[in-house]
């Protein structure tokens, strides 16, 4: 075993006496050869075990056990497995907003998405059709051997006729 695993066992099972058999033997064997882990064990004993050696065992009062028994008796019996019960529980968990932050974040996201979609330049269908017709006309002129697209373009000034 490596030192990290041994130190973890020292903190949990070995010190409490819960590690038995082969596991306890492996920890002992490792502690014989590893100075670092032996030092860790000594520090652990001084800091966490020795201060509690003289501590007495406290017995909880009887009323405490009665309260615990009452709470156990009050707990509802588990319901039989039903698809609709599971679906209802799932939907309640998903749809219930227990934290106001989640509600505010969701509302903000919905407003943000609505604003974005309202501002996007979605043209009407007639604009799209007009654009496609213009492009089709341009391509057909190219197929007919027209050298330029400016044959029918006129902006109403004589200067454009000079350049076009």
In short:
This protein is mainly α. 68% of the residues lie in helices and 0% in strands. The protein has three domains: 50 residues; 34 residues; 39 residues, no CATH class.
What is the overall pLDDT average? 79
The arrangement of helices and strands along the chain is HHHHHHHH
SS-based class: mainly alpha
Domains, number: 3
Q: Give me the Rg, rounded.
A: 41 Å
The strand count comes to 0
Distance between the termini: 88 Å
Poorly predicted runs are none
Q: Portion of residues in helices?
A: 55-70%
Largest β sheet strand count, sense and barrel closure = none
Tell me the strand percentage band: under 5%
Write down the overall geometry. Answer: elongated
List the total number of helices. Answer: 8
Oligomer: single chain
Describe the protein.
The chain crosses the membrane at residues 97-117. Residues 10-38 form the Putative zinc-finger domain. The chain is mostly helical and 164 residues long. It has three domains: 3-52; 86-119; 125-163, no CATH class. 68% of the residues lie in helices and 0% in strands. α1 runs parallel beside α3 and α2 packs across α3 (35-49). It starts with a helix and ends with a helix.
What's the structural blueprint in terms of helices and strands?
Elements (H helix, E strand, L loop, with lengths): L2 H14 L5 H12 L1 H15 L12 H13 L8 H13 L4 H20 L5 H19 L14 H6 L1
Helix pairs in contact: 1-3, 2-3
């Amino acid at each position: 075993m490596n030192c990290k695993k041994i130190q973890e066992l020292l903190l949990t099972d070995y010190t409490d006496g819960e590690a038995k058999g082969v596991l306890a033997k492996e920890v002992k064997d490792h502690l014989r050869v590893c100075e670092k882990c032996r030092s860790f064990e000594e520090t652990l004993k001084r800091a966490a075990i020795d201060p509690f050696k003289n501590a007495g065992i406290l017995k909880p009062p009887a009323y405490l056990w009665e309260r615990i028994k009452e709470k156990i008796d009050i707990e509802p019996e588990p319901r039989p497995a039903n698809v609709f019960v599971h679906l209802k529980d799932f939907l309640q968990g998903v749809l219930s907003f227990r934290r106001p932050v989640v509600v505010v974040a969701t509302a903000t996201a919905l407003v943000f998405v609505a604003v974005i979609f309202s501002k996007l330049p979605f043209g009407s269908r007639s604009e799209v059709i007009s654009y496609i017709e213009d492009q089709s006309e341009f391509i057909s002129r190219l197929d007919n051997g027209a050298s330029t697209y400016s044959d029918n373009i006129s902006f109403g000034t004589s200067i454009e006729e000079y350049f076009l």
